[in-house]
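## Example record

The block below lists the input lines for one assembly entry, exactly as stored, with component labels intact.
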Amino acid sequence: EDKVVQSPLSLVVHEGDTVTLNCSYEVTNFRSLLWYKQEKKAPTFLFMLTSSGIEKKSGRLSSILDKKELFSILNITATQTGDSAIYLCAVEAWGGGADGLTFGKGTHLIIQP
Amino acid sequence: EADIYQTPRYLVIGTGKKITLECSQTMGHDKMYWYQQDPGMELHLIHYSYGVNSTEKGDLSSESTVSRIRTEHFPLTLESARPSHTSQYLCASSGDRGREQYFGPGTRLTVT
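Predicted C-alpha cells for the full assembly:
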C-alpha cells in the first residue's frame, strides 16, 4: 500500500523565518511527487517533481526530490502571514487500479506576525 | 485559474436522506476524482473517472456512488445518509492521469 508521511504535523514560526517541510514516501512504481497548499478551501497546486535532485522554485518557495532516499522537502524563505496553511504532499504512481494521488496528512504551518 | 465548481458548499441533513453532491468543471478535463477528507486527516480517493461512462472506486471504501454522463459533470450520491458520512468531500479534475489536479472548493457535509 502506498504511503506518504509528512513532518512535522504542525509548525509555528515568526514572520521572516525560513521553514523546511518534509515528506517521505513509499510507493510502488513512483511517477511524481506533488506539493499542494490548502487554506480554508481546496488544495491549490504548488509543484510537481519527477526527477531527483532538480529544484523547483517559485518565488520564496522551492522544493527538491531525492528519489534514492524517497523524500522531498519544501522550503519557504522569508515567511509571511499569508503562508499560513496546510501544506500537502502527494505521490502519483504508474499503473495500478486507483488513478488518483496518495496524500500525506499535511503540515499545518502557522506564521505569527 | 481552474474552473471547477461544487455545490452545495455546506449541507446539514438528517439520517436516511438521499443526497447528491454536484461537481462541474469547464476545462474539458477527461479525468475527475472525488476525495474525502476528515478534519485533520489526509485526503482519501473514493471515486475516479477517466471519461464519460467510466467510473471506478478509489482506495477508500465508500458507500457513495458516482456517475459520468457528461464530461463536465461528476455527481456523487449517497442513497441513505448516516452520521458516519459526515466529512468534507472534494472534487478534482486533471487533463492528464493524476497530474496537476485542480480542486473544487469542497462540500462540507454534516449528517445528524
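The longest strand of chain A covers residues 30-38. Chain A has a mean pLDDT of 91.
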